[in-house]
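note to self — DONT lose this again. spent like an hour looking for the file last time. sequence + predicted structure for the chain T wanted, 261 res
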Amino acid sequence: MTCIYVVLNTPAKLRNMSTSDRSHPPAPASTSPAPGREPAPRQSPSGESAPARPAGERVYAWVKERILDGRLPGGELLSEGDAATALDLSRTPVREAFLRLEVEGLLRLYPKRGALVVPVSPDEADEVTEARILLESHAAERVIERGEAADVAARMRAVLDRQRALDVPADRARFSTLDREFHATLVDAAGNGLISHFYSGLHDRQVRMATSALRRVPDRRTEILAEHDTLCTLLEHGDAAGFRATLTTHINGTHGALLDS
């Protein structure tokens, strides 16, 4: 039986959440807003302030970012009041944002208690793994058949170079975003709009799983980079079968690190 440990965030913890993790170092004091506060509206070149985002959208983005990058881990309880205090807003836009995130499967709402961050379940990880292997293997076969493998591999290597330049754990969230871009470059190159659209729907799950895996197993970064390099080489050589086998090991390795640690 799986146990979920619920930790109630305090307003102070939430306000400091953007600076308490090495993966999100504080910005210079001269330009950053107060902890947990939204920055002041940007000014256009003419000196006029740009329109502020709706309050509900601000809460939605604030909470979702912290779920995807692991600052709000699965099993943690977030109250409307804590989020409202951290963002200096009323509870109404917080409630609206929580409802959106519940529809997306990231939160589970409990009346008068708050919102539970839904953990990644083994079934969800398995389903994402299966979908990714099918879609990415098909994309590799298509670009190889069309004689475009070398060009696509070169674009993937360009993303890989950007990944190598990052410092993990300081840039863990950015590393995970580039990990997703590396794989999406291949899928989009296959030229099937429906497949690309479906694959884009996996974005949040991919980033969240990759970031969580890196948080639990920091050494996974080195393995990911090496496996990405191997995938590019196999694509360049037109080895679709080898690509699929390596891809399967690669994706299972990352998602396995998420669930087994």
